[in-house]
Design goal:
The chain folds into 3 domains: 59 residues; 100 residues, Tyrosine recombinase, N-terminal domain (DNA polymerase, domain 1, Orthogonal Bundle); 176 residues, hpI Integrase, Chain A, CATH 1.10.443.10. The protein contains 14 helices and 8 strands. The strands form 3 sheets. The protein has a 3-stranded antiparallel β-sheet with strand order 1-2-3, covered by helices on one side. Strands 4-5-8 form a 3-stranded antiparallel β-sheet, with no helix packed on it. The radius of gyration is 31 Å and the shape is elongated.
């Protein structure tokens, strides 16, 4: 086909693309020519769009383009591929998210998203292709070893792709986020493993006399996250007001260990019980002994929970030490993060309002707390029903006696 542009066309409209081959029907391929409003003192800008179909369809398409330009939803045609866009998007978000989060985004984008959709034009990506990739990844998506990705992993991939395409929509590179129409798998929800008070006491018994005793106690009584625990400084503790300020978190990435803001992005205050304050005082005395032992080699960064020489305690190192302790305690499979769950569950079982529990944990909404710890609610509902029943029985008895 001789694809020629009708440069002599002096007015907007629909013009045939190419020449009619001898003895054959017209190929129904068109140039849609659109003039944009002339800017003050500027030159006229003319847009050319390729279209395949009948002349009536071409005219209808041109009318839609004109309407899109008018209402500001017009998207400039681009030949940029999904792969090229993903790299551009990664450069954009690197300074907007935590380092660990960026590493995860980059790994997903480069390991799975780019190989699956990289050569596809960004504007041509569609939901069926995305759903097909999700199905393949579940069957054979592992980079190392044989087998597929879990439903939860594929869901993470979907969220990253959706986030990337949401930015493309903001930049007006696409007309819609096609990931909205995709259907990622729904992972099976596992019930949270939360220690009861007996198991918590047993764990504390085995931790007594070790460097894990104080960290475990603080985790159980405050519900802070692992990184938040390791980011605590003595300046964050007000012993007189019995308050703890959570201002930072320790993050371990490929580049090393450093500080970042808490997960919510905001600091929060937690009231401390006498038992927690006593544990912290005892721990500070132990730390002062370490400082004297190391002398000038001690790194004084004011960290509450640090290594013997005062340097940052790596999150993974703390978790491994905790795993060894759990084996000795013989209380089943328990992760360090499960101490946070134990704190929340025990507070709710004790009758503490869910809003207070949510604030201590640093959840953005109380709904997250209620959703995560719904397994505790049936018992609370029964306790509430029993209390109400008891209250009414007393009222009825008092009323009967007064007659």
């Amino acid at each position: 086909m001789n694809d020629t542009t009708p440069k002599r066309a002096r007015s907007p409209g629909c013009y045939p693309r190419g020449k009619k081959p001898p003895g054959k029907k017209p190929q129904n391929k068109w140039w849609l020519v659109i003039d944009e409003p002339r800017e003050s003192g500027g030159r006229r800008k003319r847009r050319w769009h390729k279209f395949a179909g009948t002349k009536r369809q071409a005219e209808a398409k041109r009318a839609k383009l004109l309407a899109a330009i008018e209402d500001g939803s017009y998207v400039e045609p681009s030949r940029e591929t999904v792969g090229a866009y993903l790299e551009r998007w990664l450069m954009h978000i690197e300074s907007h998210v935590a380092k660990k989060t960026f590493e995860r985004y980059a790994q997903i984008a480069r390991t799975h998203l780019a190989p699956a959709f990289g050569s596809k034009k960004l504007s041509k990506l569609n939901a069926p292709e995305i759903d097909g990739a999700y199905a393949r990844w579940q069957n054979q998506g592992r980079v190392r070893g044989v087998g597929g990705l879990s439903a939860r992993s594929v869901l993470h991939h979907h969220r990253v792709l959706h986030k990337a395409l949401a930015q493309a929509l903001k930049w007006k590179l696409v007309t819609r986020n096609v990931a909205d129409a995709a259907e990622p798998p729904s992972p099976t929800r596992h019930e949270i493993r939360a220690l009861n008070e007996t198991e918590a006491a047993q764990l504390l018994h085995f931790a007594d006399g070790t460097r894990l005793a104080a960290p475990i106690y603080v985790l159980l009584t405050t519900g802070v996250r692992r990184g938040e625990l390791l980011g605590l400084k003595w300046s964050d503790v007000d012993f007189d007001a019995a308050m703890l300020s959570v201002r930072r978190s320790v993050e371990q990435t490929k580049a090393g260990v450093g500080f970042k803001l808490p997960k919510s992005g905001n600091a929060r205050a937690i009231e401390l019980a006498k038992g927690t304050l006593n544990v912290l005082r005892k721990h500070r005395a132990t730390q002062n002994a370490d400082r004297l032992l190391f002398g000038a080699h001690y790194k004084n960064d004011d960290l509450i929970f640090a290594r013997e020489d005062g340097t940052i305690w790596k999150p993974d190192t703390l978790s491994k030490a905790f795993e060894e302790l759990v084996k000795r305690a013989n209380i089943g499979h328990v992760r360090l993060h499960d101490l946070r769950h134990a704190c929340a569950s025990l507070l709710l079982k004790s009758g503490v309002h869910a809003k207070i529990v949510s604030e201590r944990l640093g959840h953005s909404t109380v709904g997250i707390t209620l959703d995560l710890y719904s397994h505790v609610l049936p018992g609370l509902q029964q306790a509430a029903a029993d209390k109400l029943d008891h209250l009414l029985d007393n009222a009825i008895s008092v009323g009967a006696l007064g007659k």
